Amino acid sequence: LYQLGLLDRMLGRIFDRLDRTRTWDRTLVVVVGDHGTTFELGEHRRWPYDGNIDDLYRIPLFVKYPGQREGRVVDDPAYGIDILPTIVDVLDAHVDWVFDGISLLDVPGTDRPHEVIWWCCSRDAASTDLAALFAQVERNHAWLPDQTSWLGVAGAGDLARHMGARVEDLGAGETLDVAWELDLGRELLEETRPAGMAQTYLNGRVAHVGDLSERSVLFALDGVVAGSGVILPEGPGTGTVQGIVAEQMIRPGANRVDLLVRSGGSWVVASHAELKRELRRPDGSVIELEAEGGRRIQVDRAVRGADGTVVLTGWAADVALKVTPDTIYVFAGDLLLVHGPPNLDNRNVVAWFGSDDLLRSGFEFRVEDLPEGVAQITVVAGFGDHAVAETVPITPAG
């Protein structure tokens, strides 16, 4: 959503400049997305599956023609391959290219037969039912009830009412029963950081004494509530925390970042500590995680059944070198639960990245003795000395 806001702002600057230079009426503008995103709980934001394709496959396509003064909606099928023929048509250019698409000027009333070459999911189409669209709108509105400003993006649900409040006004004092360490977002603590970028997504590690029954948290910047998030337990007394802070609350220079948790019905400020976690192979060697290169891992599902057994499925591959991992490791915190090689074929990955060598990239593991209180697991894909990981929440079956 912040990326959408940035795009909206940058487009506004471009349009204003076209107005000032009196070239707006002579300009063709095309705004299009490559895919949508989904906020469906438990679904991946971008990879297509049955539960999220209705969000992902609805993408924006806005066209402003030269001389156009009023907008209108054209309710006819259009494809990304139509954009280049449209530009050529509007510019009245002469080219000898053969286009797969047609000019959008010719789309209305045109019969457009098509052939499905490959489809990701068991359903054979995305829904065109208006009721499904309204359900998505209502779901997103409930998730972001405050839409009066961008502060509402960082304060999801009931926590939105605390955005902008001073920590002292919440009566929150520091506690030693909860400690945390910021990981992603540490640059906010630095006096100088790269210009032009603001890290609004934060995550880190948490250690606590006793039971934290309330997992919703607040983030404060320099004593003012600037965002919200959630704690995901990994085992007794440990877990991770993640959330976002509002960009406009980040000030130049070093920011103090505090975590507020609920304890005994009141907000308290977690103390700062160094909380390190080491993931080790069965032979005791430390797994070094790296984000570089083409190594990918995607956990599709981590589902807990009625008997407590967790079944997790997913895939992993080096999409640049077109190789699959040698070992998949599953951890709760730093406790190794199960490990083994990829054990399922995944034709989706073959289609996505165009290599039959990635067929055996899928995996499925069962975890029968999960420690009590664990709400998320970390799945690691090992490629020799290199490894990548994804931490995912465990969802109940059904």
Number of domains: 3
CATH class of the largest domain: Alpha Beta
What is the H-and-E element order?
A: HEHEHHHEEEEEEEEEEEHEEEE
Q: Could you name the CATH homologous superfamily of the largest domain?
A: Alkaline Phosphatase, subunit A
Percent of residues in β-strands? 25-35%
Structural class: alpha+beta
What is the CATH topology classification name of the largest domain? Alkaline Phosphatase, subunit A
Q: Which whole number gives the mean pLDDT?
A: 86
Note the quaternary state here.
single chain
DSSP strand tally: 17
Radius of gyration: 25 Å
Helix content: 10-25%
Tell me about this structure:
- The protein is of the alpha+beta class and 398 residues long.
- The strands form 4 sheets. It has a 7-stranded mixed β-barrel with strand order 3-4-7-6-5-8-9. A 4-stranded mixed sheet has the order 14-11-10-17, with no helix packed on it. It has a 4-stranded antiparallel sheet with strand order 13-12-15-16, with no helix packed on it.
- 14% of the residues lie in helices and 30% in strands.
- It folds into 3 domains: 2-143, Alkaline Phosphatase, subunit A (3-Layer(aba) Sandwich), CATH 3.40.720; 151-272, Immunoglobulin-like, CATH 2.60.40; 295-396, Immunoglobulins (Immunoglobulin-like).
- It is built from 6 helices and 17 strands.
